[in-house]
Description:
Structural class: alpha/beta
Shape: elongated
Number of strands: 10
Order of helices and strands: EEHEHEHHHHEHHEHEHHEHHEEHHH
Radius of gyration: 37 Å
Largest sheet: 4 strands, mixed
Distance between the termini: 35 Å
Amino acid sequence: MLKISFSEIPTEEKWILEGRLTEPWVRELRTSWKRNHRTAKERACIVDLNEITFVDRSGERLLRAMVREGAKCIASGIYIKHILENLTTKSKGSVLNRLFGFFSAAVIAAFTVRFGAQCVASGVYIKHVFEQLTTKGKGSVLKRLTGFFLAVVVAVFAVLVGGATAKAQNTAVAGSVPSGLASDQVLQLTLRDAVNTALLYNLGAIESGQNAQIARGQRLLALSNLLPQVSAGASENVQQVNLATFGLNGLKTGIPTIVGPFSYSSVDASVSQTLFSCESIQRFRAARTAEQAAQLSYQDILDVVTLTVGNAYLQIIEADSRIKAQEAQVQNARALYDRAVDQVQAGTAPRIDATRTEVELHTEEYNLSIARNNFEVAKLALGRAIGLPLGQQFELADTLPYSDIAPLGTAEALDIAYKARSDFRSALGSQKSAAQTLSAAKGERYPTVAINGDYGDIGPTFGHSHGDFTFQAGIRVPLFTGGRIKGDITQAEAELRQRKAETENLRGQIDYDVRTAFLNLNAAKEQVAVARQNVALANESLARSKDRFTSGVTDSVEVVQAEQALASANDQYITSLYNHNFSKLSLARALGVARTNYEQYLGAK
């Protein structure tokens, strides 16, 4: 529900909004705004959003329109401030100006690449674009300018496509691979079943697992450079040679010009081994460390999947609780309406009381319809995240009641997080791998010692054959490489500095996550206690209002207001329970134990 308060003086108009800025209250606010707002430049317009708890997309569109018409929105909460920042960011500049700025940036980037800057890309499509930018075109100046312009346009679209790909990767944990066909029975889904199913079929988990396999393949490739390479083969050959091709004239030398055809058989085996290569040794160590980091990243993704699934499960429980609370509101509104109709028919109450209660009844029925729709949408989101068969019907088997957890000290929690967080351990592994890659780049300056040999048996036939062999041992020392080794070292040093910076940033992020989780958990616990008291007081107030209305002491306005207060109190209580459970799950994620201890933190059985 949304409470709208409006006041004005000659130099200022002020709007105070309280509650949830969602449909259908957005339409009410828009109607009131059109009716009361004045666009005079000398008159200030203040919109107070300090008591707003939630804003949907329609509410964001309305706030953006209000800002364009001169309204100044104020808010103290982080959530609403974030929404206002997004509104002001998106509203700056026209679409044409933003496209022009983006295109100009792409042109500057293209010229930078053309005149010496180095760009790194892994995709074939983006690599092709960079090749087009860096390759000097042949032909006239007009042709080269045209080709360069087209390359810039392609780069613009490539950046757009790359942004969409990054966004898709960020939302991978919300997707899944459907597991089989749906059954006719209604599935009783526990939280444990949901998490275990998601760990198997969630798209983020699958992709991260395959990335770990890719890292394993890269380690095996690096190892192959240190192991012997052995091959064997057999062949049957038929050959004829024209000696005139080599300048030998048969009439002068007495040697026939055409030799053959002749045939011979051969069987051979060869072996090669690098005895010492500092570069190959360090690259193998780097690949092995990178594989370990990829495995840790996979474990971290499993924690993220657990957090996502647990949040989706909690949202269904919250939506179901809202349905039950809203059904109670509908029953209260219907009882109040029936009583008002009876009093009107008995002549003890005016007709306006019946009208008020009927409007309240329809409003609560509308809210009930919204709550039921939100419940079904939340179920679809959970099924999508865990990979249920398409169209599979299910019900939640766990309710996750309110429960406290044993408190931890901040220092103890941070110590646990630094040891248990897989993403932090993966970052340390990536830093170590980068250091080993730098050692490998420096090892390119060292000599390489290798041996190789082969042995074969060759002759006109295998019965008239003889063995032959070759053996080589050598050392190769790089004397001048045109700056290639220096370039490899420079790149490796830059990558190492990046990995170090990312590790330290993640260390700070873990500190922030743990402290924020504790703050949110303590705040949610206090909110649950306050919301319980509000619900009890709202129920008591409604009961007294009903008694006063039945006794004829007051009219239906007081009862309707009491019902609205009870609905708001129930909404706050349900929200506080959800926030409390989600804060506990977020704390488990911050500590790096979401996948292993989520049931303990949520109080699930």
